[in-house]
Amino acid sequence: MKSTKIPGVFKEGKQFYTINPEYCKGKKVYNEKIKRIKGVEYRSWNPYRSKFSSALINGIEIEIKDNYNILYLGAATGTTVSHFSDILTNGTIYAVENSPVSMKKLLELTKIRKNIVPIFNDAFHPDRYITIVPKVDLIYQDISQRNQAEIFNVNIEKYLKPEQKAIIMVKARSIDVSLPPKKAIQKVITHLEEKHVKIIDNINLAPYEKDHAAIIVST
Fold this sequence. Notes:
This protein is α/β, with parallel strands linked by helices. It has a single domain (47-218), classed as Vaccinia Virus protein VP39 (Rossmann fold). The protein has helices spanning 51-57, 79-87, 100-110, 148-159, 172-175, 181-194, and strands spanning 2-3, 9-12, 15-19, 34-37, 40-45, 69-73, 92-97, 116-120, 136-141, 160-171, 198-204, 212-218. Strand 4 (34-37) and strand 5 form a beta hairpin. Helix 4 runs parallel beside helix 6 (181-194). The protein is globular and about 50 Å long. 42% of the residues are buried.
């Protein structure tokens, strides 16, 4: 098991892992595989279940420190959120989700993992959680809506600290099903650049996620 550039993230072959905290010993989140080495539990980060894992395999480079505060938009049931929870041993994830079904499962996760703050709300209206979320070190978005770029921008403007980065997982078919995926992704990039954010990287998530890209921006 080798360390990576992200503290708390490890690699063996092509597979990435995070360390299961002591208070979660023996517990799985989404039936992921657990490797036990010298008393340490390493949770496999499934690239077919987590877009960030597929981005890691495909070469994404992003700084995440253990004391970061992360605003996670589109937390769903908490698959990727749980791995960020492993990494942020001294930080907090503010997890926004507007599906009651997903939120119910996410709440179960937060009963054990106290560094996750669940927020049942619409990410397109960031003012609604301004009393809960502080300025953050990283914004991560995974929302399959036509206006995903607009959602991303309004949250960057409201919550991202100066000179920090944000990641948007773009689903091309949600942008415009009539466009070829590359053109749909370029449409998002153009929209982001019009809002004066700098594009740092654009990672294709194939073969793990078809017609998806991970785009990193900075303010």
